[in-house]
Amino acid sequence: MEIILKKDLSGLGLKDDIITVKNGYGRNYLIPKGYATLATVSAKKIHAENIKQRAHKEEKIKNEALEIAKKLEGVSLTIGTKTSSTGKIFGSVNTIQLSESLKVKGFEIDRKNISIAENLIKEVGTYKATVKLHKDVKVEIPFEIISE
Question: Distance between CA 4 and CA 43 in Å, rounded?
């Protein structure tokens, strides 16, 4: 029996794969649970059209992410924080401050899409953050922590 997977299933395949399984497994488990649909001729045509449209939308989103990445390449951030006399930061610098600094420069990037190699930044210095704009598009942004 041929089925079209609706979700990623370990051991079977990824979403939108057309696979062959035993009749009982497909009819009694995968289809009733909503993990798959029966791969009829019309379902295969609809599936192919959906994949084509999704690929077109993904390409458009990726191109927009690449444009933003080109603009972000020349950007470097400076974040001022309160520090002790030895250069230790009171608290830490995290992705929220980076997101706000990017917003000031004109880039609306969610803090969840920003990652810092060092988990917590507790000292004045120069660091790098990675901004994930798309699953295939990532940009490294240098930023400097200074004392206010």
Answer: 8
